[in-house]
Amino acid sequence: MLTCNRRIFINTLFQKSPFANIKIIVLVVLSIIIMILDHRQGHMDSVRSLLSTAIYPIQYVVNLPVKLAGSINDAVTMRSYLLDENNRLREKHLMLNSKLQRFEILEAENNRLRNLFESSLRLKERVLIAELIAVELEPFKHQIRINKGGKEGAYDGQPILDATGIMGQIIHVSPFYSDVLLITDPNHSIPVEINRNGLRAIAVGTGQKNVLQLEHLPSNADIKQGDLIVSSGLGHRFPAGYPVGTVKNITLDPAEPFAKIIVIPSARLESSREVLLVWPREEVRYQKSNPKDFAFHDAR
Amino acid sequence: MLDERPKGRLVIAASFIIAFMLTAMPLPDWALAWRPCWVAMVLIYWCMALPNRIGPGTGWFLGLLIDVLQGTLLGMNALGYALIAYFVQNSYQKMRVYPLTQQSIVVGFYLLMYLLISLWVRGVSDDPEIGWYYWMPLITSMLLWPWLFIVLRDMRRKFHVS
Lengths: 300, 162
Known about the structure:
The structure holds two protein chains of two kinds.
Chain A: H1 2-13, H2 20-39, H3 45-76, H4 79-116, E1 126-135, E2 143-146, E3 159-162, E4 165-173, E5 178-182, E6 189-194, E7 200-205, E8 212-215, E9 228-231, E10 243-251, E11 260-265, E12 274-279, H5 291-299
Chain B: H1 9-24, H2 29-32, H3 38-49, H4 56-70, H5 76-97, H6 100-124, H7 136-158
Helix pairs in contact in B: 1-3, 3-5, 3-7, 4-5, 5-6, 6-7
């Protein structure tokens, strides 16, 4: 019995599966195949969302203390502070409402004018509020994770806003959460226009926090410091007319064909805890077959 | 009979779940880049302690979960973790008799290999350029290894995981 035990012990000590080498080769090949499939956008999304259901409880538990701290904070806030805040918000509400009235009139007028030009109306978008559950999943990517997923109808490429501007777009949807690529990620670009004169450009993330860059604008482009940059809606991914950022500075280097234009995002990418999911409606800006519309667009 | 039935599956699972929680835990901005590779370290420990149970297959699956957790290219961490497990499985007899400091150097070496593979994958899949702080987890992992080793060893002995 003792010798038998010892033999088994020795066996387990020096045991090495004869298939170990084959196994690791198979795993390496499998990993590479998965990476290639995942890199080609979307072939592995079902696997990812399946595994995400296993990961979600962990993320949920880890996030509990933050949530708890928030609710404790809410519970012990002073009454006077709340009253104060309530007053402030009421005033702001009133102010925004009065602005909104003007805006609604303008919108109606705009739609009427668009009607005259036989182009489609701008429709209202559907929105949903989501909460952040994780920031910076990885230090080298500008990504956040929000608590709304496929269950609520989120989809790949869906635009995400906060109260002050465009934040980014969804890149992975899982049943319970989705991952958002922020506009400052170096792999992200968004079609924009300058609010003042409608000059079109592409705003590309730089990888630095809170810095965007406008690409391929010639040195003589009509752009000034402080210009508001809004989404142009070209490419049909982001809704048109939402603020993206403001121009911070313009560097003209005679050696370079293009100006270097730095833009600070309007959205509070670092501090927003609540974000908005937007379902933009199909929107055709101008009917391209009608030359009159082109003329109007150029004259603007 | 010895070692007929694997024991302590729950303990192993719990240690990995805690490692995942430490990986997902929110940290202040300055500490993010310093987060040790918790799951890889726990994987190395179990590969060393129970090479006949925890191996490249387990490592591969855990890596896949890490990819989902961190939103990286699916399969990047899986590749690295499978290779870590493979190399530890091939050298566990040596690693077990090393003193703790030497062990953490070996662990650092394996993690360096894993980070290099990830760096290569990031480079191929046109990720942004990565700064010097990419290598910081290596230092924190090596510093924390002796402590993690002792904690996991005591846990293994207490629950008779074999």
